[in-house]
Amino acid sequence: MKTTNPLAALLARSPFGPIQQHMRVVESCVLELPPLFEALRRHDIGAVLEHKDEIFRLEHEADELKNGIRSRLPVTLLMPVGRRDLLDLLSTQDAIAGSAQDVASLLAIGKLRVPAAMDAQIMPFVNRIVDAVTKCRTAVDALDELIETGFRGREADNVLTIVAEVDAIESETDTLGMELVRTLVDQEADVGVLPIVFWYQLIRSLGNVADEAENVGDRLRLLLAR
Amino acid sequence: MEYAIVFVTLAVIFGLYMTWGVGANDVANAMGTSVGSGAITVRRAILIAAVFEFTGAVVAGGHVTGTIRQGIIDASAVPSPEVLVWGMLASLLAAGVWLMVASYFGWPVSTTHTIVGSLIGFGVVGVGLDAVDWGQVTGIVASWIVSPMLGATIAFGLTLSVRRLILDAESPLEAAKRWGPVYIFMMGVLIVLITLFKGLSHLNIELTAVETAGIALSVGLLIGLAGRALIRRIKVDPVAEKDFHYAGVERVFAPLCVFTACSMAFAHGSNDVANGIGPLAAVVSIVSTGQVTQSSDLPLWILVLGGAGIVLGLSTMGYRVMKTIGTKITELTPSRGFCAEIAAATTVVIASRLGLPVSTTHIIVGAVLGVGLARGIAAIDLRVVAGIVTSWLVTLPIGATLAAFFFFFFKGVFG
Asked: What digits encode the pLDDT tens for the residues B257-270?
Protein backbone atom coordinates (compact mmCIF):
# COMPACT_ATOMS: atom_id res chain seq x y z
CA MET A 1 0.00 0.00 0.00
CA LYS A 2 1.35 3.38 -1.00
CA THR A 3 1.23 6.15 1.54
CA THR A 4 -0.89 9.09 0.58
CA ASN A 5 0.40 11.97 2.52
CA PRO A 6 -0.87 15.41 1.67
CA LEU A 7 1.12 16.80 4.57
CA ALA A 8 4.43 15.61 3.17
CA ALA A 9 3.52 16.95 -0.25
CA LEU A 10 2.38 20.24 1.26
CA LEU A 11 5.68 21.08 2.87
CA ALA A 12 7.95 21.68 -0.08
CA ARG A 13 11.71 21.76 0.23
CA SER A 14 12.81 25.14 1.46
CA PRO A 15 14.78 27.16 -1.10
CA PHE A 16 16.34 29.25 1.67
CA GLY A 17 18.93 26.69 2.76
CA PRO A 18 20.21 26.22 -0.81
CA ILE A 19 20.27 30.01 -1.31
CA GLN A 20 22.47 30.32 1.78
CA GLN A 21 24.62 27.50 0.46
CA HIS A 22 24.92 29.36 -2.86
CA MET A 23 26.09 32.49 -1.04
CA ARG A 24 28.75 30.51 0.81
CA VAL A 25 30.09 29.19 -2.50
CA VAL A 26 30.07 32.73 -3.89
CA GLU A 27 32.01 33.90 -0.84
CA SER A 28 34.63 31.17 -1.20
CA CYS A 29 34.97 32.16 -4.85
CA VAL A 30 35.66 35.77 -3.85
CA LEU A 31 38.03 34.58 -1.09
CA GLU A 32 40.33 33.37 -3.87
CA LEU A 33 40.94 36.97 -4.96
CA PRO A 34 43.49 37.97 -2.26
CA PRO A 35 45.78 34.97 -2.88
CA LEU A 36 45.36 35.58 -6.60
CA PHE A 37 46.65 39.13 -6.27
CA GLU A 38 49.39 38.06 -3.85
CA ALA A 39 50.56 35.61 -6.50
CA LEU A 40 50.44 38.37 -9.08
CA ARG A 41 52.61 40.61 -6.88
CA ARG A 42 55.16 37.82 -6.58
CA HIS A 43 54.75 37.34 -10.31
CA ASP A 44 54.18 33.66 -9.69
CA ILE A 45 52.34 32.82 -12.90
CA GLY A 46 51.69 29.22 -11.88
CA ALA A 47 49.92 30.27 -8.68
CA VAL A 48 47.95 32.96 -10.55
CA LEU A 49 46.61 30.35 -12.94
CA GLU A 50 45.83 27.98 -10.08
CA HIS A 51 43.74 30.56 -8.27
CA LYS A 52 42.14 31.60 -11.53
CA ASP A 53 41.11 27.98 -12.12
CA GLU A 54 39.72 27.76 -8.60
CA ILE A 55 37.66 30.92 -9.14
CA PHE A 56 36.32 29.52 -12.40
CA ARG A 57 35.47 26.23 -10.69
CA LEU A 58 33.64 27.91 -7.82
CA GLU A 59 31.81 30.27 -10.16
CA HIS A 60 30.62 27.25 -12.09
CA GLU A 61 29.58 25.50 -8.88
CA ALA A 62 27.55 28.57 -7.87
CA ASP A 63 25.95 28.57 -11.30
CA GLU A 64 24.89 24.96 -10.97
CA LEU A 65 23.45 25.61 -7.53
CA LYS A 66 21.55 28.58 -8.88
CA ASN A 67 20.05 26.55 -11.71
CA GLY A 68 19.10 23.79 -9.30
CA ILE A 69 17.31 26.21 -6.98
CA ARG A 70 15.49 27.87 -9.88
CA SER A 71 14.23 24.58 -11.22
CA ARG A 72 12.78 23.68 -7.82
CA LEU A 73 10.86 26.90 -7.38
CA PRO A 74 7.48 26.37 -9.08
CA VAL A 75 4.91 29.17 -9.13
CA THR A 76 2.59 27.16 -6.87
CA LEU A 77 4.82 27.74 -3.85
CA LEU A 78 3.53 29.84 -1.00
CA MET A 79 6.56 31.46 0.60
CA PRO A 80 7.00 34.18 3.21
CA VAL A 81 8.57 36.36 0.53
CA GLY A 82 7.83 36.89 -3.12
CA ARG A 83 9.19 34.29 -5.50
CA ARG A 84 10.40 37.00 -7.89
CA ASP A 85 12.32 38.75 -5.08
CA LEU A 86 13.95 35.49 -4.11
CA LEU A 87 15.02 34.75 -7.68
CA ASP A 88 16.42 38.30 -7.98
CA LEU A 89 18.39 37.80 -4.78
CA LEU A 90 19.80 34.59 -6.18
CA SER A 91 20.91 36.09 -9.49
CA THR A 92 22.47 39.07 -7.71
CA GLN A 93 24.43 36.69 -5.48
CA ASP A 94 25.50 34.90 -8.61
CA ALA A 95 26.63 38.19 -10.17
CA ILE A 96 29.20 38.58 -7.36
CA ALA A 97 30.87 35.37 -8.47
CA GLY A 98 30.51 36.49 -12.08
CA SER A 99 32.45 39.70 -11.38
CA ALA A 100 35.14 37.76 -9.53
CA GLN A 101 35.42 35.59 -12.62
CA ASP A 102 35.83 38.70 -14.80
CA VAL A 103 38.78 39.72 -12.63
CA ALA A 104 40.31 36.26 -12.86
CA SER A 105 39.97 36.06 -16.63
CA LEU A 106 41.71 39.42 -17.08
CA LEU A 107 44.60 38.14 -15.00
CA ALA A 108 44.71 34.83 -16.83
CA ILE A 109 46.30 36.58 -19.77
CA GLY A 110 49.40 36.34 -17.63
CA LYS A 111 51.30 39.32 -18.97
CA LEU A 112 50.23 41.77 -16.32
CA ARG A 113 52.55 42.98 -13.56
CA VAL A 114 51.65 45.06 -10.55
CA PRO A 115 53.13 48.56 -11.14
CA ALA A 116 55.45 49.46 -8.28
CA ALA A 117 53.49 52.57 -7.38
CA MET A 118 50.29 50.53 -6.93
CA ASP A 119 51.86 47.73 -4.95
CA ALA A 120 51.05 49.18 -1.54
CA GLN A 121 47.49 50.06 -2.46
CA ILE A 122 46.24 46.98 -4.25
CA MET A 123 45.90 44.54 -1.33
CA PRO A 124 43.95 46.86 0.98
CA PHE A 125 41.55 47.42 -1.93
CA VAL A 126 41.09 43.70 -2.66
CA ASN A 127 40.75 42.82 1.01
CA ARG A 128 38.07 45.44 1.54
CA ILE A 129 36.11 44.01 -1.37
CA VAL A 130 36.29 40.59 0.23
CA ASP A 131 35.06 42.19 3.47
CA ALA A 132 31.99 43.50 1.69
CA VAL A 133 31.16 40.03 0.38
CA THR A 134 31.80 38.31 3.71
CA LYS A 135 29.58 40.82 5.49
CA CYS A 136 26.94 40.26 2.86
CA ARG A 137 27.16 36.51 3.45
CA THR A 138 26.48 36.97 7.18
CA ALA A 139 23.29 38.82 6.22
CA VAL A 140 22.20 35.96 3.93
CA ASP A 141 23.06 33.56 6.75
CA ALA A 142 20.34 35.21 8.81
CA LEU A 143 17.64 34.09 6.36
CA ASP A 144 16.65 31.11 8.50
CA GLU A 145 16.27 33.35 11.53
CA LEU A 146 14.14 35.65 9.38
CA ILE A 147 11.82 32.79 8.48
CA GLU A 148 11.48 32.01 12.18
CA THR A 149 10.40 35.56 12.97
CA GLY A 150 8.33 36.03 9.83
CA PHE A 151 10.73 38.60 8.33
CA ARG A 152 9.91 41.07 11.06
CA GLY A 153 11.12 42.33 14.40
CA ARG A 154 14.51 42.08 16.04
CA GLU A 155 16.07 39.73 13.50
CA ALA A 156 14.97 41.96 10.62
CA ASP A 157 16.60 44.96 12.34
CA ASN A 158 19.75 42.91 12.77
CA VAL A 159 19.88 42.12 9.06
CA LEU A 160 19.22 45.75 8.12
CA THR A 161 22.18 46.77 10.29
CA ILE A 162 24.45 44.31 8.49
CA VAL A 163 23.19 45.53 5.12
CA ALA A 164 24.00 49.12 6.10
CA GLU A 165 27.53 47.95 6.95
CA VAL A 166 27.85 46.39 3.52
CA ASP A 167 26.87 49.74 2.02
CA ALA A 168 29.53 51.51 4.08
CA ILE A 169 32.23 49.05 3.03
CA GLU A 170 31.18 49.37 -0.60
CA SER A 171 31.60 53.15 -0.60
CA GLU A 172 35.02 52.67 1.03
CA THR A 173 36.02 50.41 -1.84
CA ASP A 174 34.77 53.07 -4.27
CA THR A 175 37.20 55.56 -2.72
CA LEU A 176 40.05 53.04 -2.68
CA GLY A 177 39.37 52.18 -6.30
CA MET A 178 39.41 55.83 -7.36
CA GLU A 179 42.71 56.37 -5.58
CA LEU A 180 44.13 53.37 -7.40
CA VAL A 181 43.04 54.76 -10.75
CA ARG A 182 44.61 58.10 -9.88
CA THR A 183 47.90 56.43 -8.99
CA LEU A 184 47.74 54.54 -12.24
CA VAL A 185 47.14 57.66 -14.34
CA ASP A 186 49.96 59.48 -12.55
CA GLN A 187 52.32 56.65 -13.54
CA GLU A 188 51.24 56.62 -17.18
CA ALA A 189 54.78 57.18 -18.50
CA ASP A 190 56.21 54.22 -16.50
CA VAL A 191 53.32 51.81 -16.86
CA GLY A 192 52.42 52.21 -20.51
CA VAL A 193 49.05 52.66 -22.12
CA LEU A 194 48.02 49.03 -22.64
CA PRO A 195 48.62 47.97 -19.03
CA ILE A 196 46.68 51.06 -17.92
CA VAL A 197 43.72 49.96 -19.99
CA PHE A 198 43.92 46.49 -18.43
CA TRP A 199 44.34 47.78 -14.91
CA TYR A 200 41.53 50.22 -15.30
CA GLN A 201 39.26 47.39 -16.40
CA LEU A 202 40.54 45.24 -13.56
CA ILE A 203 39.81 47.90 -10.95
CA ARG A 204 36.33 48.35 -12.37
CA SER A 205 35.64 44.62 -12.27
CA LEU A 206 36.89 44.43 -8.69
CA GLY A 207 34.60 47.33 -7.88
CA ASN A 208 31.73 45.41 -9.46
CA VAL A 209 32.25 42.60 -6.95
CA ALA A 210 31.56 45.03 -4.10
CA ASP A 211 28.74 46.68 -6.06
CA GLU A 212 26.97 43.36 -6.48
CA ALA A 213 27.44 42.67 -2.77
CA GLU A 214 25.71 45.96 -2.11
CA ASN A 215 22.95 44.94 -4.54
CA VAL A 216 22.45 41.72 -2.59
CA GLY A 217 21.96 43.90 0.47
CA ASP A 218 19.36 45.92 -1.39
CA ARG A 219 17.52 42.72 -2.35
CA LEU A 220 17.49 41.70 1.29
CA ARG A 221 16.04 45.10 2.14
CA LEU A 222 13.26 44.43 -0.34
CA LEU A 223 12.50 41.09 1.31
CA LEU A 224 12.04 42.93 4.58
CA ALA A 225 10.17 45.89 3.12
CA ARG A 226 6.57 44.66 3.31
CA MET B 1 -34.04 -11.21 11.73
CA GLU B 2 -32.77 -13.77 9.28
CA TYR B 3 -28.98 -13.86 8.83
CA ALA B 4 -28.57 -11.66 11.94
CA ILE B 5 -25.27 -13.28 12.89
CA VAL B 6 -23.97 -12.96 9.33
CA PHE B 7 -24.85 -9.26 9.21
CA VAL B 8 -23.22 -8.44 12.53
CA THR B 9 -20.12 -10.47 11.70
CA LEU B 10 -19.76 -8.75 8.33
CA ALA B 11 -20.32 -5.34 9.91
CA VAL B 12 -17.68 -6.04 12.57
CA ILE B 13 -15.17 -7.17 9.94
CA PHE B 14 -15.81 -4.19 7.63
CA GLY B 15 -15.86 -1.77 10.57
CA LEU B 16 -12.58 -3.14 11.90
CA TYR B 17 -11.09 -2.89 8.44
CA MET B 18 -12.06 0.78 8.22
CA THR B 19 -10.70 1.67 11.65
CA TRP B 20 -7.59 -0.37 10.89
CA GLY B 21 -7.10 1.80 7.81
CA VAL B 22 -7.60 4.93 9.88
CA GLY B 23 -4.95 3.75 12.32
CA ALA B 24 -2.54 2.66 9.63
CA ASN B 25 -2.72 5.75 7.45
CA ASP B 26 -4.56 8.70 8.93
CA VAL B 27 -2.96 8.77 12.36
CA ALA B 28 0.35 9.46 10.68
CA ASN B 29 -1.18 12.57 9.11
CA ALA B 30 -2.59 13.74 12.41
CA MET B 31 0.70 13.36 14.23
CA GLY B 32 3.08 13.89 11.34
CA THR B 33 3.82 17.47 12.33
CA SER B 34 5.19 16.43 15.72
CA VAL B 35 7.24 13.61 14.27
CA GLY B 36 8.41 15.63 11.29
CA SER B 37 9.60 18.54 13.40
CA GLY B 38 11.72 16.10 15.37
CA ALA B 39 9.84 16.98 18.55
CA ILE B 40 8.98 13.36 19.30
CA THR B 41 10.30 10.05 18.10
CA VAL B 42 8.23 7.68 15.98
CA ARG B 43 8.12 5.17 18.83
CA ARG B 44 6.80 7.77 21.25
CA ALA B 45 4.28 9.00 18.69
CA ILE B 46 2.91 5.48 18.26
CA LEU B 47 2.62 5.10 22.02
CA ILE B 48 0.85 8.44 22.41
CA ALA B 49 -1.39 7.65 19.47
CA ALA B 50 -2.39 4.27 20.86
CA VAL B 51 -3.39 5.72 24.22
CA PHE B 52 -5.04 8.94 23.11
CA GLU B 53 -6.70 7.70 19.92
CA PHE B 54 -8.37 5.04 22.03
CA THR B 55 -9.34 7.54 24.73
CA GLY B 56 -10.64 9.96 22.12
CA ALA B 57 -12.68 7.27 20.45
CA VAL B 58 -14.23 6.00 23.66
CA VAL B 59 -14.74 9.29 25.50
CA ALA B 60 -15.66 11.63 22.68
CA GLY B 61 -16.32 9.42 19.66
CA GLY B 62 -20.05 9.09 20.30
CA HIS B 63 -21.37 12.23 18.64
CA VAL B 64 -19.87 11.74 15.21
CA THR B 65 -20.70 8.04 15.37
CA GLY B 66 -24.31 9.07 15.99
CA THR B 67 -24.29 11.27 12.91
CA ILE B 68 -22.86 8.58 10.64
CA ARG B 69 -25.15 5.99 12.13
CA GLN B 70 -28.48 7.80 11.96
CA GLY B 71 -27.91 11.39 10.86
CA ILE B 72 -27.34 11.03 7.15
CA ILE B 73 -29.92 8.38 6.28
CA ASP B 74 -33.44 9.24 7.35
CA ALA B 75 -34.47 5.89 8.82
CA SER B 76 -38.20 6.64 8.62
CA ALA B 77 -37.95 6.70 4.83
CA VAL B 78 -36.32 3.26 4.67
CA PRO B 79 -38.93 0.57 3.84
CA SER B 80 -37.57 -2.28 5.96
CA PRO B 81 -34.84 -2.95 8.53
CA GLU B 82 -33.09 -5.32 6.12
CA VAL B 83 -32.70 -2.57 3.53
CA LEU B 84 -30.91 -0.37 6.04
CA VAL B 85 -28.63 -3.22 7.11
CA TRP B 86 -27.69 -3.98 3.48
CA GLY B 87 -27.11 -0.29 2.92
CA MET B 88 -24.83 0.12 5.91
CA LEU B 89 -22.83 -2.97 4.94
CA ALA B 90 -22.64 -1.73 1.34
CA SER B 91 -21.45 1.70 2.49
CA LEU B 92 -18.72 0.19 4.65
CA LEU B 93 -17.58 -2.11 1.89
CA ALA B 94 -17.65 0.68 -0.71
CA ALA B 95 -15.62 2.99 1.52
CA GLY B 96 -13.14 0.20 2.28
CA VAL B 97 -12.67 -0.70 -1.38
CA TRP B 98 -12.32 2.91 -2.53
CA LEU B 99 -9.79 3.68 0.21
CA MET B 100 -7.78 0.63 -0.77
CA VAL B 101 -7.74 1.67 -4.43
CA ALA B 102 -6.87 5.28 -3.56
CA SER B 103 -4.06 4.14 -1.26
CA TYR B 104 -2.70 1.90 -3.99
CA PHE B 105 -2.43 4.81 -6.40
CA GLY B 106 -1.34 7.29 -3.74
CA TRP B 107 -4.33 9.63 -4.00
CA PRO B 108 -5.06 11.92 -1.04
CA VAL B 109 -8.52 10.61 -0.20
CA SER B 110 -10.35 11.33 3.04
CA THR B 111 -11.91 8.42 4.95
CA THR B 112 -14.66 10.72 6.18
CA HIS B 113 -15.63 11.94 2.75
CA THR B 114 -15.64 8.39 1.44
CA ILE B 115 -17.99 7.00 4.06
CA VAL B 116 -20.35 9.99 3.82
CA GLY B 117 -20.38 9.69 0.02
CA SER B 118 -21.12 5.98 0.30
CA LEU B 119 -24.01 6.54 2.68
CA ILE B 120 -25.51 9.17 0.37
CA GLY B 121 -25.10 6.82 -2.58
CA PHE B 122 -26.89 4.00 -0.84
CA GLY B 123 -29.66 6.35 0.31
CA VAL B 124 -30.31 7.86 -3.10
CA VAL B 125 -29.99 4.74 -5.22
CA GLY B 126 -31.10 2.07 -2.78
CA VAL B 127 -34.06 3.89 -1.27
CA GLY B 128 -34.72 7.22 -2.96
CA LEU B 129 -33.87 10.89 -2.75
CA ASP B 130 -36.07 11.28 0.35
CA ALA B 131 -33.98 8.78 2.31
CA VAL B 132 -31.12 11.23 2.64
CA ASP B 133 -31.36 13.96 5.25
CA TRP B 134 -30.20 16.69 2.88
CA GLY B 135 -30.20 19.36 5.58
CA GLN B 136 -27.76 17.33 7.62
CA VAL B 137 -25.65 16.52 4.55
CA THR B 138 -25.47 20.18 3.58
CA GLY B 139 -24.24 20.99 7.06
CA ILE B 140 -21.59 18.27 6.86
CA VAL B 141 -20.37 19.38 3.44
CA ALA B 142 -20.25 22.99 4.65
CA SER B 143 -18.17 21.85 7.62
CA TRP B 144 -15.65 20.34 5.19
CA ILE B 145 -15.05 23.82 3.84
CA VAL B 146 -15.35 25.73 7.10
CA SER B 147 -13.24 23.44 9.30
CA PRO B 148 -9.94 23.74 7.38
CA MET B 149 -10.53 27.49 7.27
CA LEU B 150 -11.12 27.61 11.00
CA GLY B 151 -7.95 25.55 11.52
CA ALA B 152 -6.05 27.96 9.29
CA THR B 153 -7.41 31.01 11.11
CA ILE B 154 -6.52 29.69 14.56
CA ALA B 155 -3.06 28.62 13.39
CA PHE B 156 -2.52 32.03 11.80
CA GLY B 157 -3.42 33.79 15.04
CA LEU B 158 -1.28 31.44 17.14
CA THR B 159 1.72 31.96 14.88
CA LEU B 160 1.41 35.72 15.19
CA SER B 161 1.04 35.52 18.96
CA VAL B 162 4.02 33.18 19.35
CA ARG B 163 6.03 35.60 17.26
CA ARG B 164 4.95 38.57 19.31
CA LEU B 165 5.20 37.04 22.75
CA ILE B 166 8.23 34.81 22.27
CA LEU B 167 10.34 35.26 19.16
CA ASP B 168 10.41 39.06 19.25
CA ALA B 169 10.99 39.19 23.00
CA GLU B 170 14.15 40.55 24.59
CA SER B 171 15.14 37.00 25.50
CA PRO B 172 13.19 34.59 23.28
CA LEU B 173 14.34 31.60 25.28
CA GLU B 174 13.06 32.93 28.61
CA ALA B 175 9.85 34.04 26.93
CA ALA B 176 9.36 30.57 25.48
CA LYS B 177 9.81 29.00 28.89
CA ARG B 178 7.32 31.45 30.38
CA TRP B 179 4.61 31.35 27.71
CA GLY B 180 4.94 27.77 26.44
CA PRO B 181 3.15 26.23 29.44
CA VAL B 182 0.44 28.92 29.19
CA TYR B 183 -0.35 27.85 25.64
CA ILE B 184 -0.74 24.19 26.52
CA PHE B 185 -2.73 25.13 29.63
CA MET B 186 -5.24 26.98 27.48
CA MET B 187 -5.29 24.18 24.93
CA GLY B 188 -5.96 21.62 27.66
CA VAL B 189 -8.76 23.65 29.25
CA LEU B 190 -10.42 24.30 25.90
CA ILE B 191 -10.32 20.72 24.66
CA VAL B 192 -11.56 19.25 27.94
CA LEU B 193 -14.33 21.87 28.16
CA ILE B 194 -15.59 21.15 24.66
CA THR B 195 -15.40 17.40 25.20
CA LEU B 196 -17.11 17.35 28.57
CA PHE B 197 -19.81 19.89 27.79
CA LYS B 198 -22.93 17.68 27.99
CA GLY B 199 -20.90 15.02 26.30
CA LEU B 200 -20.34 12.00 28.50
CA SER B 201 -23.85 10.57 28.72
CA HIS B 202 -22.82 7.36 26.96
CA LEU B 203 -20.40 6.65 29.79
CA ASN B 204 -23.20 7.37 32.28
CA ILE B 205 -21.30 10.32 33.63
CA GLU B 206 -23.33 13.45 34.23
CA LEU B 207 -21.45 16.59 35.13
CA THR B 208 -22.68 19.98 36.25
CA ALA B 209 -21.27 23.11 34.69
CA VAL B 210 -19.11 23.74 37.74
CA GLU B 211 -17.74 20.20 37.71
CA THR B 212 -16.98 20.49 34.01
CA ALA B 213 -15.12 23.74 34.49
CA GLY B 214 -13.30 22.29 37.48
CA ILE B 215 -12.12 19.24 35.59
CA ALA B 216 -11.10 21.31 32.58
CA LEU B 217 -9.09 23.71 34.73
CA SER B 218 -7.43 20.86 36.63
CA VAL B 219 -6.44 19.04 33.44
CA GLY B 220 -5.15 22.29 31.97
CA LEU B 221 -3.15 23.08 35.10
CA LEU B 222 -1.78 19.56 35.22
CA ILE B 223 -0.42 19.61 31.68
CA GLY B 224 0.70 23.22 32.05
CA LEU B 225 2.75 22.31 35.12
CA ALA B 226 4.03 19.11 33.53
CA GLY B 227 5.13 21.13 30.51
CA ARG B 228 6.84 23.65 32.74
CA ALA B 229 8.73 20.93 34.56
CA LEU B 230 9.85 19.42 31.27
CA ILE B 231 11.19 22.63 29.78
CA ARG B 232 12.72 24.03 32.94
CA ARG B 233 15.92 22.06 32.56
CA ILE B 234 16.56 22.90 28.94
CA LYS B 235 19.97 24.43 28.43
CA VAL B 236 21.14 26.33 25.41
CA ASP B 237 23.65 24.62 23.16
CA PRO B 238 26.07 27.44 22.28
CA VAL B 239 27.24 25.76 19.07
CA ALA B 240 23.73 25.25 17.71
CA GLU B 241 22.76 28.74 18.86
CA LYS B 242 25.60 30.29 16.91
CA ASP B 243 24.41 28.65 13.74
CA PHE B 244 20.75 29.38 14.34
CA HIS B 245 19.72 31.94 16.97
CA TYR B 246 16.41 30.26 17.71
CA ALA B 247 17.78 26.76 18.26
CA GLY B 248 17.18 27.09 22.02
CA VAL B 249 13.62 28.33 21.58
CA GLU B 250 12.84 25.40 19.33
CA ARG B 251 14.24 23.06 21.95
CA VAL B 252 11.73 24.48 24.41
CA PHE B 253 8.89 23.81 22.00
CA ALA B 254 9.91 20.22 21.40
CA PRO B 255 8.66 18.79 24.73
CA LEU B 256 5.53 20.94 24.46
CA CYS B 257 4.78 19.22 21.18
CA VAL B 258 4.32 16.01 23.13
CA PHE B 259 1.19 17.55 24.64
CA THR B 260 -0.14 18.90 21.37
CA ALA B 261 0.47 15.48 19.81
CA CYS B 262 -1.60 13.91 22.60
CA SER B 263 -4.44 16.36 21.97
CA MET B 264 -4.23 15.73 18.24
CA ALA B 265 -4.44 11.97 18.74
CA PHE B 266 -7.40 12.48 21.07
CA ALA B 267 -9.17 14.74 18.58
CA HIS B 268 -8.48 12.35 15.73
CA GLY B 269 -9.80 9.39 17.69
CA SER B 270 -12.93 11.33 18.60
CA ASN B 271 -13.76 12.13 14.99
CA ASP B 272 -12.38 9.44 12.73
CA VAL B 273 -13.30 6.30 14.62
CA ALA B 274 -16.90 7.03 13.69
CA ASN B 275 -16.20 6.35 10.02
CA GLY B 276 -15.78 2.69 10.75
CA ILE B 277 -18.07 2.11 13.68
CA GLY B 278 -20.99 4.36 12.75
CA PRO B 279 -22.44 1.94 10.20
CA LEU B 280 -21.48 -0.97 12.45
CA ALA B 281 -23.43 0.60 15.30
CA ALA B 282 -26.41 1.03 12.98
CA VAL B 283 -26.33 -2.63 11.93
CA VAL B 284 -26.01 -3.82 15.52
CA SER B 285 -28.88 -1.67 16.69
CA ILE B 286 -31.21 -2.74 13.85
CA VAL B 287 -30.38 -6.41 14.22
CA SER B 288 -30.82 -6.40 17.99
CA THR B 289 -34.09 -4.44 18.01
CA GLY B 290 -35.47 -5.40 14.61
CA GLN B 291 -36.47 -1.78 14.07
CA VAL B 292 -35.01 1.03 12.05
CA THR B 293 -36.32 4.04 13.90
CA GLN B 294 -35.05 2.95 17.28
CA SER B 295 -32.51 5.48 18.48
CA SER B 296 -30.99 3.36 21.17
CA ASP B 297 -27.81 4.25 23.00
CA LEU B 298 -24.51 3.46 21.42
CA PRO B 299 -23.11 0.34 23.08
CA LEU B 300 -19.72 1.06 24.65
CA TRP B 301 -18.20 -2.13 23.21
CA ILE B 302 -18.54 -0.69 19.72
CA LEU B 303 -16.53 2.41 20.63
CA VAL B 304 -13.94 0.18 22.28
CA LEU B 305 -13.83 -1.98 19.16
CA GLY B 306 -13.23 1.12 17.07
CA GLY B 307 -10.44 2.28 19.35
CA ALA B 308 -8.92 -1.20 19.20
CA GLY B 309 -9.09 -1.15 15.40
CA ILE B 310 -7.10 2.07 15.31
CA VAL B 311 -4.48 0.69 17.69
CA LEU B 312 -4.28 -2.43 15.54
CA GLY B 313 -3.71 -0.33 12.43
CA LEU B 314 -1.06 1.65 14.25
CA SER B 315 0.85 -1.38 15.41
CA THR B 316 0.71 -3.24 12.10
CA MET B 317 1.39 -0.45 9.62
CA GLY B 318 1.25 2.93 11.31
CA TYR B 319 4.87 2.73 12.42
CA ARG B 320 6.18 2.46 8.90
CA VAL B 321 3.89 5.16 7.54
CA MET B 322 4.76 7.51 10.38
CA LYS B 323 8.47 6.94 9.77
CA THR B 324 8.14 7.76 6.08
CA ILE B 325 6.22 10.93 6.80
CA GLY B 326 8.56 11.95 9.59
CA THR B 327 11.47 12.03 7.19
CA LYS B 328 9.48 14.01 4.64
CA ILE B 329 8.29 16.81 6.89
CA THR B 330 11.58 18.16 8.10
CA GLU B 331 10.94 21.76 7.07
CA LEU B 332 8.59 22.19 10.00
CA THR B 333 10.10 23.49 13.24
CA PRO B 334 8.66 22.45 16.61
CA SER B 335 7.21 25.95 17.17
CA ARG B 336 5.37 25.74 13.84
CA GLY B 337 4.18 22.20 14.44
CA PHE B 338 3.03 23.35 17.87
CA CYS B 339 0.83 26.14 16.44
CA ALA B 340 -0.56 23.93 13.69
CA GLU B 341 -1.41 21.08 16.06
CA ILE B 342 -3.13 23.22 18.68
CA ALA B 343 -5.22 24.81 15.93
CA ALA B 344 -6.09 21.51 14.29
CA ALA B 345 -6.84 19.66 17.54
CA THR B 346 -9.14 22.43 18.75
CA THR B 347 -11.00 22.56 15.44
CA VAL B 348 -11.44 18.80 15.26
CA VAL B 349 -12.67 18.57 18.86
CA ILE B 350 -15.24 21.32 18.19
CA ALA B 351 -16.43 19.43 15.10
CA SER B 352 -16.56 16.18 17.05
CA ARG B 353 -18.64 17.79 19.78
CA LEU B 354 -21.05 19.11 17.15
CA GLY B 355 -21.26 15.62 15.66
CA LEU B 356 -19.76 16.76 12.38
CA PRO B 357 -17.63 14.16 10.57
CA VAL B 358 -14.70 16.21 9.28
CA SER B 359 -11.40 15.29 7.69
CA THR B 360 -8.61 15.58 10.24
CA THR B 361 -6.04 15.54 7.47
CA HIS B 362 -7.64 18.46 5.67
CA ILE B 363 -7.82 20.45 8.88
CA ILE B 364 -4.12 19.78 9.53
CA VAL B 365 -3.38 20.92 5.98
CA GLY B 366 -5.47 24.03 6.65
CA ALA B 367 -3.63 24.70 9.90
CA VAL B 368 -0.21 24.35 8.25
CA LEU B 369 -1.42 26.73 5.53
CA GLY B 370 -2.42 29.17 8.26
CA VAL B 371 1.11 29.08 9.67
CA GLY B 372 2.42 29.60 6.15
CA LEU B 373 0.12 32.57 5.54
CA ALA B 374 1.58 34.13 8.67
CA ARG B 375 4.92 33.89 6.83
CA GLY B 376 6.11 31.15 9.12
CA ILE B 377 7.05 28.35 6.72
CA ALA B 378 9.76 28.48 4.09
CA ALA B 379 7.79 26.91 1.27
CA ILE B 380 4.32 25.42 0.95
CA ASP B 381 3.29 23.72 -2.25
CA LEU B 382 -0.24 24.85 -3.04
CA ARG B 383 -0.67 22.10 -5.62
CA VAL B 384 -1.69 19.90 -2.69
CA VAL B 385 -4.73 22.08 -2.07
CA ALA B 386 -5.83 21.60 -5.67
CA GLY B 387 -5.28 17.86 -5.27
CA ILE B 388 -7.47 17.80 -2.17
CA VAL B 389 -10.31 19.66 -3.87
CA THR B 390 -10.09 17.25 -6.81
CA SER B 391 -10.19 14.27 -4.50
CA TRP B 392 -13.38 15.65 -2.92
CA LEU B 393 -15.05 16.02 -6.26
CA VAL B 394 -14.09 12.48 -7.19
CA THR B 395 -14.61 10.72 -3.87
CA LEU B 396 -18.27 11.58 -3.33
CA PRO B 397 -19.62 10.22 -6.64
CA ILE B 398 -17.32 7.19 -6.62
CA GLY B 399 -18.17 6.30 -3.04
CA ALA B 400 -21.83 6.74 -3.90
CA THR B 401 -21.65 4.58 -7.02
CA LEU B 402 -19.75 1.80 -5.29
CA ALA B 403 -22.17 1.80 -2.35
CA ALA B 404 -25.14 1.57 -4.71
CA PHE B 405 -23.47 -1.33 -6.50
CA PHE B 406 -22.76 -3.21 -3.28
CA PHE B 407 -26.26 -2.46 -2.02
CA PHE B 408 -27.80 -4.28 -4.97
CA PHE B 409 -25.27 -7.05 -4.49
CA PHE B 410 -26.35 -7.60 -0.86
CA LYS B 411 -29.97 -7.24 -1.85
CA GLY B 412 -29.46 -9.98 -4.42
CA VAL B 413 -27.69 -12.28 -1.98
CA PHE B 414 -29.87 -11.84 1.10
CA GLY B 415 -33.09 -10.43 -0.31
From this structure: 999 999 999 999 99
